[in-house]
Amino acid sequence: MITSFAYVGFVSPNAADWRTFGPEVLGAQLVDHPEGAVALRVDDRAARLMVHEGEVDDVAYVGWDCGDAVGLADIVQRVRAAGITVVDDSAAAAVRQVEALAAFTDPWGFRHELTHGLAEGGPFQPGRPMNGFLTGGQGLGHLVFLLPDLDDGMRFYTETLGFLLSDHIEMGISLRFLHCNPRHHTLALSAVPGIVGIHHLMLEVNDVDDVGRALDIVNERSIPVAMGLGRHTNDHMTSFYVRTPSGFEIEYGAGGRVIDDATWEVEVYDAMSIWGHKPPAEPLMPGMLRPFAPADQ
Ligand SMILES: [Fe+2]
Fold first, then answer.
1. Ligand 1 centre from 156 Cα, in Å?
2. Tens digits of per-residue pLDDT, 1-29?
């Protein structure tokens, strides 16, 4: 089974901008990468956030930790049973610094890497003074995918990949929140007809003061904010959304609540936020989107 979100890689024409955005704005640690990508650490593991130079902003790969070799074999079998080709990729495993890696492309064209054993990378040294990111068993954070059809997405991520429903938000648009460990959601899905993309990546820090400090830095540098400071109804995260150099947003937050499956009850919310999360006067449109036609597959 998938136990956590291990890492993510993007391609972007603005990859070089992450060499300052990563450490100076996010507080991540910049390290060398064997392929020359921008590689960022957020904890004592090897790099979890990579940005490769490329022509168009897009997701290159999403890495999932499956716990161990048995968990990896189990999820590979489930993906194959869904009629999807899965290939062992030892070359990618070496670059990502994981013990094993099996890769597949999902029905919407995203490359997923099923892994275990992301290497230790020594003590985390933040790019600027801050009190660290909340990772460990909760993984890197969460990702929000935009897919053309919510039911198709739910079927794939719950029935094939084994994610569990945390709750939903119904407010004209529908959002489904999914978990695979105590983090309230590791994935969220929303539907936009004819469109595939990533809306945001969430990184959680240990100290809410670091959310405020990061927002100060973002404002000092006039970096666009897609949603101001606010607190979410469902995961209780206090966060803001900053536009990255690559068109998608990073939600930078603290104080997310955790799920105990023994007692958790799925709820439906009619709003995204308890307070705040206001868009700017001129709203930013999500930038990392591409048209989707099933015939392209
Ligand atoms: Fe989020």
1. 20
2. 999 999 999 999 999 999 999 999 999 99
